[in-house]
Amino acid sequence: MSGSKKTVLMIGGTGAQGAAVVKALSDDSAYEIRVLTRSAASPAAAELAALPDVTIMEGNPYEEATLQHAFDAVELAWVNTNGFAIGEKNEIYWGIRMYEIARSSGVSHFQWASLPYVSKLGDFDPKYRTGHMDGKGKVADYISAQPTSPMKWTILTSCMYMETLTELLAPRQSPEDPDLTVFAAPLGNGRPPLIYLADLGRYARWVFDNPGRSNGMNLMVATENIGWECLAKTFTEVTGKKAIYRDISLDELFTSGAFPFPDRKAELFRFLEQLEGGPSKGGLRSARRYPTNEDKNTK
Predict the structure, then answer these.
(1) Does residue 85 sit in the same domain as residue 176?
(2) 228: closest CA among 291, 178, 272?
């Protein structure tokens, strides 16, 4: 390994978000990247292993001995715990513990992949409680209370991936008119922030490339704030096909079969309700604004 290269430990590196970060870090051979994953034989791990300067390390990221070994002799760490898989309580514990182990291991810069702390933004009204987001937000609050030396820290707060527009958020053909494409979502006039995964990778790379600027920062990132009516109009402009935005209820979303987690209905409802009408009736948008490409272009 070249002495000029810093080694980055990636926890959660084989996921959609993590893979984008690995690709950004390996783009020009400036970093050595160590990806901790449960299965080195998985297709996702194999794809990353083919990239330059990437090493796959097999092990359970939610195990003390594995973490002690993984953090050994690395300068940088990017951490994204899987709250859907381990639950909010475990995510809070392991997020904090990973920070502690990184600190005791001599890591110079710790980057935590976070989401908005929705309950806190909603003044802890129970109707806004959203476990898979709150867990990350609580860890972010803990890290934000820590000193920025000797170990630097940065929170990278992101949002829903733009790629879900071809998956969970994909439009559907109207059953009444086969020539009509319907963009249906329970959003009203809301313009939620979405991020293109490649952009997320570039932001994470920027954090490590610019430690003097990113240290102690909660960097909230998005590619664009998108309204579904605009999506439908743009679709028509690009394809020449008819399209409309249909504002639907949450119940309609679940009965449509588009959402794969019916047991999370209440949790999703709380999040969407805050997005449209949370603090000061301005929703999440009023409480905290994400920077977008539009902002960058005006500076």
Answers:
(1) no
(2) 272
DSSP strand pairing (193-195 vs 224-225): antiparallel
Give me the residue label for tokens 């796959």.
Answer: 56
In which element (H, E) is residue 211 found? helix 211-214
CATH of the domain at 238: 3.90.25.10
Find residue 56's DSSP bridge partners.
35
**230 and 202 in one domain?**
no
CATH number of the domain enclosing 108 = 3.40.50.720
Chain segment 88-138, per-residue pLDDT in tens: 999 999 999 999 999 999 999 999 999 999 999 999 998 888 888 999 999
In this structure, are residues 185 and 247 in contact, taking their beta carbons and an 8 Å threshold? Answer: yes
Mean pLDDT on 151-163: 97
List the beta bridge partners of residue 194.
160, 224
- Residue 6 confidence (pLDDT) above 70: yes
pLDDT (tens digit per residue) in 92-106? 999 999 999 999 999
Contact 67, 92 (CB under 8 A): no
Structure confidence at residue 256 as a pLDDT band (50, 70, 90): confident
Q: Are residues 48 and 196 in the same domain?
A: yes
- Are 151 and 265 found together in one domain? no
Sequence-separated contacts (24+) of 64-68 with Cβ below 8 Å: 64/97, 64/101, 66/36, 67/97, 67/98, 67/101, 68/101, 68/105
Over its C-alpha atoms, the chain yields an Rg (Å, rounded) of: 20
* Residue 246 shares a structural domain with residue 208: no
Domain count, the chain: 2
Residue with tokens 């129970």: 126
- Whole-structure pTM value: 0.86
